[in-house]
Design goal:
alpha/beta; about 160 residues; Rossmann fold; about 40% helix
Length: about 160
């Protein structure tokens, strides 16, 4: 494998779920000593929170479980991101629709909903509305574990 595996976590505003997923995935690959194989980032489908840091609820939950918060300011996903990243991971069905629109489709099959990697078609609930960062963390962790397992299986099989 020559290049890093590039993952973009995406949600509506890029301050709650996608920043949590970016920090969780970064921590997981760090714990397995494979950080050098990955480039992990996050973005929004909207412009509502551009420039803002991660939501205090996300920061508090990650601190509570001992996961370092990746310093980040909200950015919007672009069409160029589709070409650059190997995996574009949306948190819910609305994100997937908006990501596909931004990318002008998904001809390479790179856009996924996070919980599909945990064997579920469910959306990761937006804690901006629910206030439940614990449930979001559980979903994000399950999705990231499944995504990492899938990527490493492909890597071992030589499909990356």
């Amino acid at each position: 494998m020559k290049d890093k595996i590039k993952i973009l976590m995406v949600c509506h505003g890029n301050i709650c779920r996608s920043t949590m997923a970016e920090s969780v995935m970064t921590h997981m690959v760090s714990q397995q000593h494979i950080s050098h194989l990955f480039e992990i980032n996050s973005a929004a489908t909207s412009r509502e929170e551009i420039g803002n840091p991660p939501h205090y609820g996300t920061v508090n939950k990650l601190r509570q479980v001992g996961i370092p918060v990746i310093p980040h300011r909200a950015v919007q996903m672009t069409k160029a991101d589709y070409d650059y990243y190997d995996y574009l991971i949306g948190m819910d069905s609305a994100n997937i629709r908006n990501m596909t629109r931004i990318a002008d489709g998904d001809p390479e099959g790179k856009i996924y909903k996070l919980l599909t990697f945990a064997g579920s078609g469910r959306d990761v609930a937006d804690p901006w509305y629910t206030g439940d960062f614990d449930a979001t963390y559980r979903d994000v962790t399950a999705g990231c574990e499944g995504l990492l397992k899938e990527i490493m299986n492909k890597h071992r099989e030589g499909n990356l």
